[in-house]
Amino acid sequence: TFLLLRMTPYTLDAVLFEALSAFGTVGLSTGITPHLPEGAKWVLIACMYVGRLGPMTLGAALAVRSRVRMLQLPRERPIVG
What we know:
Largest sheet: none
Structural class: mainly alpha
Oligomer: single chain
Number of strands: 0
Strand content: under 5%
C-alpha cells in the first residue's frame, strides 16, 4: 500500500482498496487500475500472487502437521531364502 501511495497520486482509501482487493484476489476495483503506472501494476500483481499462494501454503503446512494417523501399518521381518 505504501509503495502504491508513493507511485500514484490517488488517495489512501482508493489505493488501500486496490491493494486489499489484489491481495484477496476478489476482482473488485475502484477503476484506477488501468490508470496506474507500470510499476504500480507490478506491485499489484505481486500482491495477487502472495495473496493466492500465502494462505494456501500456510493452510497446507498446518494440515500436514496436525494430521493424526488413524491406522498403523503392520511391521514384519520377511524371511528370504
